[in-house]
Each structure stands twice: as structure tokens, then as C-alpha cells.
Amino acid sequence: MSEIIKALELLRSGKWVDLTHEVHNKIPKYGAFPDLVTKTPYTLEKDGFFVHEVSFITQYGTHIDAPVHFSKGKRSLEELELKEFILPLYVINKEKEVEENNDFVLSAKDILEFEEEHGKIEPKSFVAFASGWSKRWEGDFYNKDEKEVPHTPGWSIEALDLLLNQRGVLGVGHETMDTDASKDVQQKGFLYAEKFVLDANKFQVELLKNLTQLPAKGGVIFIGVPKFKGFPGFPVRCFAIV
Predict the structure, then answer these.
(1) Is 200 left (phi over 0), alpha (psi -120 to 50) or beta?
(2) Which of 69, 90, 105, 171 lies most in the core, judged by the most C-beta atoms within 10 Å?
(3) Could you read off the pLDDT of 15-52 as tens digits, one per residue?
(4) Which CATH number fits domain 16-27+57-241: 1.10.533.10, 1.10.760.10, 3.50.30.50, 1.10.260.40?
(5) In whole angstroms, what is the distance from residue 89 CA to residue 158 CA?
(6) How far apart are CA 199 and CA 169, in angstroms?
(7) Which runs of consecutive H residues, i.e. helices, occur in 101-174?
(8) What is the pTM of this model?
(9) Residue 222 host element (H or E)
């Protein structure tokens, strides 16, 4: 048995956790984006085969953001390397803090405290912010107050700088719609944390689920990414093995 097959057998013996939401036209989405539309031009009954024609925005459901999504001249979907789609996984779990403060912002201090307990985050890895927010998927996902102002958690630029530029992390992910906490977007008027990630020519995965089921380290994330030329992103199938 080859070493590759032995490695596969080892992976099969682990716990497999789906990190991807099902996609349909009723899921949460960015407000300005159109709904998913599905047509069925061919059916088994009429044509002997079944085909859907689908119209949807590239950043829909659990999806990857390629750098070109916010940064001109940076990498598009097909330019991401295959080795970036299977990475060591670190999970920073702040579900309790987010429950207490929906406007929680993950700080560089939080990263350093995580490293004090679990060791230094290694380069060429993927870091996920587990907020528990995906449990709201079929409920109050936008969490708007009486003035229609959303309250959702996010990353600080300082935390992202530590991970991307000092630790050499290749990608980050989260359960929310945006990288930025909603309060930062309201104060600054733009998604500056998201732009920071993509300006660094790194990628991110948004609208992940089940992150709170994962250990802080020791797992691997797999990201199934299609190869559309020039695209800024696309829905993906993500899972972890721990």
C-alpha cells in the first residue's frame, strides 16, 4: 500500500464535519444581490435527462472570495493554487463572547491568547473564527435592531494583519456574511477588513457552518473550488477532518 493510500485510510478514520450550508433561493444573502433563480429546460419525463439552468451571484451561500473580488490585479478564482484548498486548520472559538456581545470584534490580543494556549499558528494554514453565528441561519441571521441596524461579529484588521502578514496564513473563514463586524462597517462606511484580506492576495471563505464542533487545532480543511476563469468567487463545498 502506497503512503498516499495509507494517508487516505487515516483520513477516513477521522471525524468528517460538513462546513457548508445547503443552497436554495431562501438562504440569507447580501441585501443588494438578486435571488437565486432556477429553471428546468430539460426533464426526465420529457427529454430523458434532467438539467437545471441557474442564475445566482458568485458570492452566494458558503463561498470563497478570490482576491480580485476587492482588489484589481490580484488573483481570480482559477489562479488560486490547488495546494491552498487542503490546509491545516485552526479554529478560534469565541461563541460565548459573541453570545454576550453580538458586536464582538476578534482582536490581535485574542489571537495571541489563543497561541498561548495552543501554540503558535503555523504558516500555510487556514484560520477560522467560530462565532456560532451559523446557528441563526434559518432565524435572525441579520440581527437587526428596531432601527434596522444589523449587529454581527467580525475580524479586526489588526488580527488579520497578525495572521496574514506575520504568521503567513493562506486563508481565513467565518460564519457571518462579512469579514467586518457590522458596527465597523457602520462607523467606517466600507468593508475594510475584507479588503485587507484580499489586498494581501489571500482568500477567505464566508458563511461557514459547524465551526464550533471543531477542535482548536489538529484538523484539516478541504475546500472544493470550481475553475471559472476571471471569477471573483463562487459557492464551495467545505468540510473538515479532525
Answers:
(1) alpha
(2) 90
(3) 999 999 999 999 999 988 999 999 999 999 999 999 99
(4) 3.50.30.50
(5) 20
(6) 14
(7) 108-118, 157-161
(8) 0.97
(9) strand 219-224
